Amino acid sequence: MPNLKSAERRLRKSERRRKRNRHYKSMMKTFIKKVKNATTKEEAEAALKKVYSILDKLVVKGIIHKNRASSYKSKLAQFVNNFPTTQQAQA
User: Fold this and answer.
1) Per the record, where are the segments of Basic residues compositional bias (predicted)?
2) What is the pTM of this model?
3) Which residue, among 77, 86, 90, 78, has the nearest Cα to 39 in the 3D structure?
4) pLDDT tens-digit readout, 2-38
5) With CB atoms counted within 10 Å of each terminal CB, which end of the chain scores lower, N or C?
6) DSSP class of 11
7) CA contacts within 13 A on the Cβ side of 54
């Protein structure tokens, strides 16, 4: 339990920020899973576009570092580019 009034305020602020950050990180992970679990390349590309937007917003808000967002983007783009087409999947 905080002893000072300012420490009580900091505790309340940090709890609100923690909840907000958890929400955004959970949302980010959910959309990344949507890209990885896509059944068609078109579906994966649409989900990738949404993930790019979300990652950029999280960088601006300071929730994740810009290099981490860049790393996610790179890995997911590589995944989508190597997505098997229907002819390759049937072979």
Assistant:
1) 10-22
2) 0.79
3) 86
4) 899 999 999 999 999 999 999 999 999 999 999 999 9
5) N
6) H
7) 20
Residue 90 has pLDDT above 80, yes or no: no
Residues of the domain holding 17: 11-80
What string of H, E and C letters represents the secondary structure of 22-90? HHHHHHHHHHHHHHHCCCCHHHHHHHHHHHHHHHHHHHHHCCCCHHHHHHHHHHHHHHHHCCCCHHHHH
Q: What is the CATH number of the domain that holds 27?
A: 1.20.58.110
* Tens of pLDDT, residues 40-83: 999 999 999 999 999 999 999 999 999 999 999 999 999 999 98
Q: Cα angle at 82 between 80 and 88, to 5 degrees?
A: 120
Residue linked to tokens 């949507």? 34
Residue 87 lies in a domain: no
Q: What is the CA radius of gyration of the chain?
A: 19
